[in-house]
Amino acid sequence: MADLVLLGIEHREVLKQRLGQATPPRSHEPGRVTAPGTRAEIFHRSGNSPGSDGTLHRLCIQIICKARAELHCNFALRKRKAEVVSADRHPLPATVLTGFLGAGKTTLVREILANPRGQRIGVLVNDFGEINIDAALIVEGSANSVTLSNGCVCCTIQSELVTAVRELIASRPDLDRIVVEASGVSRSLPLADTMISEELEGLVTLDGIFCIVDAAAFPELDYATTELAIDQIVGADLLILNKVDLVSENEQERLRTQLSGLTPHLRIVPCRHGDVPIEVLLGPARGERPATESGGGHDHRSHSHGSHDHVHGPDCGCDGAHPTESHTKDFSSWSWRSDDPLDEKLLRPALKRIGGGLLRAKGVLRVRGESGEERSFEFQQVGKRAQMTAIEAVEMAESAFVAIGLSGQMDGAAFKAALDACRLEKSGN
Ligand SMILES: Nc1nc2c(ncn2[C@@H]2O[C@H](COP(=O)(O)OP(=O)(O)OP(=O)(O)O)[C@@H](O)[C@H]2O)c(=O)[nH]1
């Protein structure tokens, strides 16, 4: 049967608005829509007939969400390019957690607070309802939480989020980071826009948007909720596939294929009860230098850091904090260090190439530009999104870099070789 795509009239209108001059295709016209700065793909799917099971609706939604995501991402990237950070007034990293109702956001926040690795974390919790249950649960583990109730931070109480962030930073200047738990109905991208808005410029820097997906519930979502859930997913830097204990291997694989179809380049981290390595979520604390133990992956079977299941391996001997090592057999970390300056011209493309299987990278880098001038940079990568910001006031004697990836998917040797290839002689010759 021929491939077929049906674009509903309201979707065509949305696409028209989003894409400016480009005309969305009519029903039954699969193909591609392009417009400056954005791209929407019309999906092909064999064997579907319009309206039979909601699949085609889902396809239309994917198109809208992709177009939306690309427009927003372009905007966000433009803004971030202009961002130069000085070390004496370092904006606070902000981690945003999104995900559909009940996906496990509060569980993940509690995981983070159970093992903050020395970071002082301020939490902003948004519950859509009048009573903020999530905040009540989180308060158990943290004195620094702010409640945003009775509305959604991505739309109706956007300005309250800005005010709350400003007030939290003013009252707690010692914080190392803030974590925003969005309500289950928040969309990722308007929330990201708020966090990088002028009102918060210089105060916070958006460190990562993580979308938590309920592995058991996602396939069961109905038409209306699917649109929202997909919107949350495509706006994220990294997907956390939670509740994998509730699905079979086959179901998990099917879901991964489906999610990869939505966002082919998005990294997916499977977990139970939000048990994701803290380094993937938080990166380094303000002013923290990444530790640089050498060597390959680290395997902590039966090892989790959560209130639900705190089981350590027999020879673990850990105190709950592993600066650069992974916490389960699914993750590995690599570190690298050099006291030679790095060639800026070679480094920038090299950093773009280290992507395969990478979940998170962080580093401080001593870089020499074409003019021979040396400067220090902080590098942060979450999923595919990378950010390199100048550290104006601090002279770094050396470079240090840590990468965390999914075991077996990231080539640690290639990663080290790529960075080694950027080394220059100390003398400047
Ligand atoms: N089986 C299982 N249950 C989980 C897992 N993670 C969270 N839960 C449970 O799922 C329920 C919802 O988790 P929450 O963390 O409150 O979800 P949420 O995303 O904060 O929910 P909303 O704030 O309503 O959007 C709770 O009962 C959790 O204990 C998991 O990995 N496996």
UniProtKB/TrEMBL annotation:
Gene3D superfamilies: CobW-like, C-terminal domain, P-loop containing nucleotide triphosphate hydrolases. Residues 331-423 form the CobW C-terminal domain. The keyword Hydrolase applies. Residues 286-299 have a biased composition (Basic and acidic residues). GO terms for molecular function: hydrolase activity; nucleotide binding. Residues 286-321 are annotated as: Disordered. Transmembrane segments: none annotated. The keyword DNA repair does not apply. Keywords: Chaperone, Hydrolase, Nucleotide-binding. It comes from the Bacteria. It catalyses: GTP + H2O = GDP + phosphate + H(+). Pfam families: cobW, CobW_C. Zinc chaperone that directly transfers zinc cofactor to target proteins, thereby activating them. Zinc is transferred from the CXCC motif in the GTPase domain to the zinc binding site in target proteins in a process requiring GTP hydrolysis. Belongs to the SIMIBI class G3E GTPase family. ZNG1 subfamily. PANTHER family: COBW-RELATED. This is GTP-binding protein. It comes from Jiella avicenniae.
